[in-house]
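seq/struct pair 1
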Amino acid sequence: MKACVIGAGAWGIALAIVLSDTGFQVEMWDSDPAVTDAINSQHIALKLQGLEIPLSIAARHEAGQTLQGASIVVSAVPSVALGTVTRSLGPLIPGDAILVSATKGLDPETGKRPTEAWLSCGPSLGPKLVAMSGPNFAIEIARRLPAATVVASKSEEARETAQAAFMTPYLRVYTHWDVAGVELGGALKNIIAIACGITEGMGIGYNAQAAIISRGIAEVTRLGSALGADPLTFAGLSGVGDLVLTSTGHLSRNRQAGIAVGRGESIESFLARTGYTVEGVATVKSAMELAKDHGISMPITEVVYKILYLGLSTRQGLTEIMGRDRRSEHE
């Protein structure tokens, strides 16, 4: 069995390791030849804190050869690359392969969910599309530490195929039918994690972070429901599970970015200093547009957007959140 992983970042490498462990011959594709060369020479292991990549995993720069013969294709590209990757590779996905999207973000060009972006470039992919999301840090998956995740598809066959492909003694995989809910949970929680990081950086206490997390899942659920997701999905692994991990775990890049901003550093400076991909920075723009289009109140998301893009100070943001009109929690 052959699997192809698109995107050779830390998340793509972690998923390649899982597929290798379940018996697949794994080939990775990346647009950067230097990255594929580094994987083949094991130098890329430095990206995963010294973890060695199994010798059974190879990497290529030529997409057609990499995808040829694959029975499962995994997309682990950052959301900013979705448009380019889906347009160039969508027509090349083998007809009998399932496509698992593991991107946790929204297409910044269109606001579409990752599976929607793939579908728009490859209409025949419909019955074979699977969304994968959950509370998973790449380095812990790569180290084979216990974890759980969710694979969602409208096709029972596709989601069960994906479940079997990724299920290992260290990774428990659950199936779901709610593709929209699983993808939106994985994307929108990054915004709330930035907000939690900001409160940490400001030093205003754990009570504030708990409030951000609980009210954050409320507004994520509101927007998700308006976009066709089942509200109950956000109570699961891809919703509150991923939200709590990303908002509190020290490995979270979104939380780290928020901490830096809370301490007074600009988001531009943080990104330049670290070189990190911080999905919430782009996602907050798309979320604001979607909330506006559907008339959804997302006060935490709105304040994060204003802080990152409109120059609102973190203290002004705190005042704006705390000074909102009184209301029932049920609202």
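seq/struct pair 2
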Amino acid sequence: MAKGIADKGNASMINLHNVDCMKYMKDVPEKHFDLAIVDPPYNINKAMWDKFNKKEYIQYIVVFMTELQRIMKDNSSVYLFHNDFNQLSKIQTRINQETNYILRQFLVWNKRFPGSSNKGYFDGFVEIDGLRNYQKLAEYICFYTFQDETGLTKIMDSCVFPVREYIRDEILRARGHIKFKEINSILGTATNGGGVASAVLSLKKTVPAMITKEHYNILREWLNNGTEYEYLRTEYEDLRTEYEDLRYYFNNQKTHHSVLNIDIEKKMSEHETEKPITLYKTLLKYSARPNAKIFDPFLGSGSIAIACYDLGFDLTGCEIDKDYYNSAVNRFKNHISQGNIFQNEKQHIFQNETSFKLTKKE
């Protein structure tokens, strides 16, 4: 099983609601979700639901993002889709001023790339005679967290500082001094500078690194002549677990950078702006830790429901339009009826006019 992917055998719930997401969020407790993938209307006149007064639209998105912030965990991540940079720049300015979101990366979803099944089709748009602008064949995705680049500064006091202090005390207890060059030599790392020892143990570091388990075990053996030192072992492992749990999750797949070359897929719903299932799966693989609770406030075509189902993640989704909601539910039902995830396993499906719920029976 790939790291970061939920265990399909424990796949839990797909909850889809025909409701205004703003109304739904008001009943959600604080710090509830681990990851939100947000694909709101872009206000570009794509359809009747995509036409707003610009000032009111920007205000709505900012109010929405503020309420979303309340129900996201401190170590959560949020992806926000858009494709109008002028509007997005105004939204981002307000987000910087009025919320705690930190823009970690600005992603571009590229729809026309070598090897794309749609490249020939899109080439026709680019080569239109009389075109006096660059043809837009991409969309933007803002990647937010509520922590800094490393996710460390908010958890220094609870995890990293105690580990640094404890290891320093143990080195002084056993050796009587702390020499970074000597420690680096023991660790098998570069000894011509501060190196790993300085990064982990220097009191001058306001944001010291958390020592890896491998280096920790080497130091433990060095300090105690190979003897198990139970407190040192359990204290470190407890703090290391807390450290990983408190940081925002990012499982680098080493397959993408800030430009995502992802094909448009065959249209499978009634929605005008259906997103590829592969696009959602890519974001989930990077940012959804095992057993993560995913939230999609603008369900649309329901592609994310299929992605979460296939990868084994919990999902709560909202769609205000009844026709789009029904289309998304029917699309999802059709997908699970082909069944390779829950094949030969019992399912429990509940549906009424405003909600759909699927759980695996244990």
